[in-house]
């Protein structure tokens, strides 16, 4: 198990627990009762800790190295997944995976950022930072979904679109802008989940939908706390403060009406129980697809545009 | 066709009646460091008379360069609010107050409606002001673009958006991010209404502005030598850990890479836009 710095009290309890279990195994003393007490204590500690997470701790959890990624969810929620590659122009971007699959027997199109579980994988996936080709692959497959009337399900988890030379030369900005534009009027259901990091345009590039939900230990805003700290505080050291100031948690985002709801995670976070998390998500997706399927495309698009039209806070002076 | 004659005639018409700045002051060029008189500078469309460097100008200047006299500024009563109580080194509220005092602008974008050229083509312009918190896009910028688009649809006018921005306004956090979606979604409605939209990118056009309306014109054009990109040069340099090649993220490279229809010198802007809009048509 990998513990975050703020999970130190729990990590310490786990150390104690392991020692007790070892003593028990050696058969010198019966530790069963103490083990049970300690396990209970860990549970209670964890519950308190997770109830009072700060914004920065949420950011840390969203980046937990053991957190489930798009392919982990695809494997557990859908059947018959066929991965589809390439933007038909430059290449296949590994930071965004996409493909068709079935949910309870019905076809859907899945598009999501993909990170890696180890160093080699992380490099292969470019740390979930897509190039323009990733966004263009996504758009190509959204169009395909529209043509064959499949709902689109997006899993968002990116520290941002890749800021590289080739990315700029091949039109990173245009690719993201085009996706946002086309998703506004795509004639099929679009359901989006922030499953980890929701950083800026790189997230929004596959993040415009009829309904957008955030998992409990995720964040979504215009810039990462680190970059915000560098620009506004002119120092790398204010990331915790920046995370607070940005009000980037699911609770804030829901309160602001910028997302449609929050999906709760198993105690200890999504990484503590992949299967439980996937089961929650599967049920959530099915329910939402059923609700959205009742509405015609015309109405749905009208409402989608109205939703985004109304985002923003400002003052209107009396003239 | 009369197009080509007018292209030449129209050049010097707009800045002649702008006398509010006292003459005799000098303009020192940022690029070539040469000095010219303010009068020469203004009459040269706020470009350096020596090296043609396009100095950064504001919405008022663009409106008077492009629109025929008698245009109206719209939606001036929409102002930013510090609804997140955002404090970094300074409270956002103070930054807003200071920017308003310093620039005499309400926010980083102004909208005007009027006509362009001798055929009086109805045109609405939404123009960003870099002087106001780096031309950053917050809720007000997004709302004014949405209102401008609705105005275009209701009154059947063409749309020009002039971008000049360092990106999204961080002090409005996710609200500023969602302006990318808001403005882009509204542009689909303008397209449905069959009305033309030209995006003019000026120095600098970066971040969330480039990743939304700036790249979504029926035609995308730019002034010469503007910085155009998504990620800022500093971030890219830090990522790739080496110097950026010469000419990277300029209007010229953006055109070579296939993302611009044309680069237009500021002195030709009015005539080129009139020409473009008259061909696209406003029905
Ligand atoms: Zn010069």
Index terms:
heterodimer, A: about 325 residues, 2-enoyl-CoA Hydratase, Chain A, domain 1, eight-stranded mixed sheet, 14 helices, about 50% helix, globular, B: about 280 residues, seven-stranded mixed sheet, disordered N terminus, binds zinc ion
The helix tally of chain A amounts to 14
What overall geometry of chain B do the principal axes of the alpha carbons give? globular
Largest interface between protein chains, with number of residues from each side: A-B, 58 and 62 residues
CATH topology (level 3) name of the largest domain in chain B: 2-enoyl-CoA Hydratase, Chain A, domain 1
| CATH homologous superfamily label of the largest domain in chain A | 2-enoyl-CoA Hydratase, Chain A, domain 1
Largest sheet of chain B: 7 strands, mixed
Give the overall form of chain A. globular
CATH superfamily descriptor of the largest domain in chain B: 2-enoyl-CoA Hydratase, Chain A, domain 1
**Strand pairing plus helix content of chain A: what structural class?**
alpha/beta
In round numbers, the mean pLDDT of chain A is 95
- The overall strand count of chain B is 10
Mean pLDDT of chain B: 92
The CATH architecture of the largest domain in chain A would be Alpha-Beta Complex
Proportion of beta-strand residues of chain B: 15-25%
Measured as a percent range, the helix fraction of chain A is: 40-55%
**Distance between the amino and carboxyl termini of chain A:** 61 Å
